[in-house]
Write a structure and sequence with these properties.
flat, alpha+beta, 5-stranded antiparallel β-sheet
Length: 261
């Protein structure tokens, strides 16, 4: 039985298609039950390129960050990254996509959580939850921290940002806590498709300059060694954080950026 409304049956992807809407709304078959339809949907979404208007919006976003006084740096995914894998979705898996433009992004809350966790686990007694340094950057239950973490948006590109990927569950019943079925070599593997992301992302922080620099140092090590998002134990989510970027994006540079898309 088809779940797609009849007026949409013949609709095809275009240069302005929103990947998030296509993923959530344009299912041809019962994606939760039919494996082939899930694979087809993942492949369809991975084929969608960055919308043409996104480059204009990104230039305005970057200019807004400059006016706000944020410091920005570029972070490039080393391999693949998957953010929001366990969120609610029409599939068994999900991915964080920008609501308006459908591009993958890293929520500021995820960056803050990664930096805070890395600080507690790897930076010693000076960065525990009850210390002044930790509270200054990350805050506590009573007050907000002095450093603001913005969502990290991808730089405009002609290359694909989303890619088909797969998780293979080898012992499904055992992982479902069925202890009467211990894992065995003859269990049937269950491949589950999902979407992972690549690309370069604009990471922006604002606050007192010395604390922003310290936070970027924490993020640099956390992104390189711990990773962000899901499946970090399998090597996903590693990013290389570069040095500070100039934010004086003049009109000529903006025009060249937009023309390259």
């Amino acid at each position: 039985m088809s779940t797609r409304r009849q007026p949409l049956e013949n609709l095809r992807k275009t240069r302005t298609t929103n990947a998030g809407l296509w993923l959530d709304k344009f299912i041809r078959e019962q994606a939760r039950e039919d494996k082939e339809s899930r694979w087809a949907l993942v492949r369809e979404v991975a084929e969608i390129r960055v919308p043409e208007d996104y480059a204009h919006w990104f230039a305005r976003w970057r200019q807004t960050l400059q006016e706000y006084g944020a410091e920005c740096r570029e972070a490039e995914v080393q391999g693949r990254m998957v953010i929001g894998l366990g969120e609610e979705s029409v599939l068994e898996t999900s991915v964080a996509l920008h609501h308006t433009y459908g591009v993958p992004y890293i929520p500021g809350s995820a960056l803050k959580g990664l930096a805070a966790s890395f600080a507690r686990q790897h930076l010693g007694n000076d960065w525990q939850e009850n210390t002044s340094a930790y509270k200054t950057v990350f805050g506590d239950t009573q007050t907000a921290g002095y450093v603001t973490f913005f969502d990290a948006l991808p730089f405009p590109t002609n290359s694909a940002l989303l890619h088909p990927d797969v998780i293979t569950v080898h012992h499904e019943k055992y992982y479902q806590n069925d202890r009467t079925a211990p894992p065995a070599d003859w269990d049937d593997p269950n491949p589950v498709p999902f979407l992972s992301a690549t690309g370069k992302y604009l990471i922006a922080l604002s606050g007192p300059s010395e604390w922003v620099r310290a936070t970027f140092d924490i993020l640099k090590h956390a992104l390189a060694h711990t990773g962000i998002g899901a499946k970090t134990s399998s090597g996903y989510g590693r990013l290389k954080l570069e040095s500070a970027l100039p934010l004086d994006l003049d009109q000529a540079k903006a025009d060249r950026l937009i023309a390259s898309i």
